Amino acid sequence: MSTAKKEYKRVTVKTLVDMKARGEKISMLTAYDYTMAKIVDGAGVDVILVGDSASNVMAGYETTLPITLDQMIYHGSSVVRAANRALIVVDLPFGSYQSDPKEALRSAIRIMKESRAHSVKLEGGKEIKESIKRILNAGIPVMGHLGLTPQSIYKFGTYTVRAKEEEEAKRLIADAKMLERIGCYAIVLEKIPATLAKEVAESVNIPIIGIGAGPDVDGQVLVLHDMLGMTHEFHPRFLRRYLNLYDDMTSAIGQYVDDVKTQDFPNQEEKY
């Protein structure tokens, strides 16, 4: 099966399913603003996730729970204006879909209309089945999210690996098959054993995107600020840092401060 990269004018949900069938891996990164999304899209990333991780990396909260629907729409619309190729997925934030399928639909409609994103992502399995079905019935594409679900952090009490025990692993597989059956076009699997992730990917026809789920899935996602090394306190095993921007940016800003203090900036060539 060929793994050659194919160029797309615009990646769609069908594109991703076709990529899985062809054996082409899917690249996915987060972005939350116009400038960074422009760079991510131009670099050829297939899917941009406007994640509720904006609560952490953009707003400085300890968890993803505080971010609001209005804030997700703001971040989503900023990213949509920047991206010409990537599929844009926006997280439904905590409290906007869990308790009431009608509220879930209203939240998803607001994201689609006001941000002009291409799909939404929800965390959970059978417990939110009716919310997902209501959204899908309105013609809105849905990406699922199983395994470690950060919006449920106070329920779990920890960010450790999920589904290590047989019973939870069986529930996860059943939830993945259910999400495919009701119409989700892809699923994110977060922080689960690689052998289980491989089993899930082989048991469904929709793409499985991993984060801390090993190599035997259909694609990978990372938080942009983590993989660029802008955040430096976070050191999970699954994270590969491709740059060390924290040190580089600190050095550059420090040099700017020194240049201003010593009147080296602006120089004769940098004035009108």
Polypeptide structure, described:
This protein is of the alpha/beta class and 272 residues long. It folds into two domains: 13-241, TIM Barrel; 244-272, no CATH class. Helix content is 41%, strand content 13%. The protein contains eleven helices and eight strands. It has helices at residues 13-22, 34-42, 54-57, 69-80, 101-115, 129-137, 153-156, 166-182, 194-203, 224-227, 245-261; strands spanning 26-30, 47-50, 87-91, 119-121, 142-147, 186-190, 208-211, 219-222. An eight-stranded parallel β-barrel has the order 1-2-3-4-5-6-7-8, surrounded by seven helices. Helix 5 (101-115) packs across helix 6 (129-137). The N and C termini lie far apart (60 Å). The mean pLDDT is 94.
Search tags:
272 residues, TIM Barrel, 2 domains, eight-stranded parallel β-barrel, 41% helix, 13% strand, globular
CATH 4th-level superfamily of the largest domain: Phosphoenolpyruvate-binding domains
Largest sheet: 8 strands, parallel, barrel
Helix and strand composition category? alpha/beta
Helix content class = 40-55%
| Counted beta strands | 8
Annotated CATH topology of the largest domain: TIM Barrel
Structural shape: globular
Work out the helix count.
11
How many domain units?
Answer: 2
What is the overall pLDDT average? Answer: 94
Distance between the termini: 60 Å
Contiguous low-pLDDT stretches (5 residues minimum) are none
Task: List the secondary-structure elements in sequence, H or E.
Answer: HEHEHHEHEHEHHEHEEHH
What Rg, in angstroms, do the CA atoms define?
Answer: 20 Å
The portion of residues forming beta strands comes to 5-15%
CATH class wording of the largest domain: Alpha Beta
Oligomerization status of the protein chains: single chain
By CATH, the architecture of the largest domain is named Alpha-Beta Barrel
The main sheet orders its strands as 1-2-3-4-5-6-7-8
